[in-house]
Amino acid sequence: MAEGGFWTRVTRIFKSRSASNDGPDIEEVGARLDEAYRTQSKLLAQVRRGVADVATSRKRVEIQLASLRREIAAADDEAKASVARGDDAGARRALERQVALEKAAGELDDRHVQLRSEEEQLISSAASIERQIEDFRVRKDTLAARYSAAQARNEIHGATAGIGATAGEVGRVMADAERHTRELEATADAVDELMNEGILARPGESQDEALLRRFDEALGSVDAEPRAVEGDGHGPHQISQ
């Protein structure tokens, strides 16, 4: 089990290195991260525009509410004045108008509460997105630096492995060259020896001249040897002429 786990880890390491070597380069990774950052920034801008639109709608509702409240107050004053004059019909019309205005004001007030809630939610979302974008920017810069460092390490490891493999091949080539050199040197020494012995002709020398030179050298070696001493081995002896 332990051996299997070991080889599994080794396989994973080589797969990881292979995947890393086949992966995108640092420029491509940086471009992807920058594009993601721009996309999130656009989303944040959209949310901020949404906040501005909702805030504008809320302001309009507030203006309409203020206008309705003024109209409601005016209708109430008119109803009271009509009652004071004894104008029951006028008072009834003023009260009916006041009721309609109060109903519209109630609906606008509900809308105002809804817009206020939407605005607060959008503001909270914008703040959250802004924090996420800032966190992403920091992570993006950190990841780009880590990716660059990891890529450099893999390149160094690959170069080191390549140097090791090349060194073995270079060693074999040098050994072959050295063996071939020794063979050439041995061949050259043998040729020199054969040429010196007259078996092979020297450069510019014919084969007959080589044989004659060998014969002359052989005679010279014989003449150089001491001459045999004549005598019976007991008395005075004399060198033969």
Automatic annotation (TrEMBL):
Coiled-coil annotated residue ranges, if any: 58-85
Keywords: Coiled coil
Domain of life of the organism encoding this protein: Bacteria
InterPro entries, alphabetized: PspA_VIPP1
Family, per entry: Belongs to the PspA/Vipp/IM30 family.
Designated name of the protein: Phage shock protein A (PspA) family protein
Organism (species): Aeromicrobium choanae
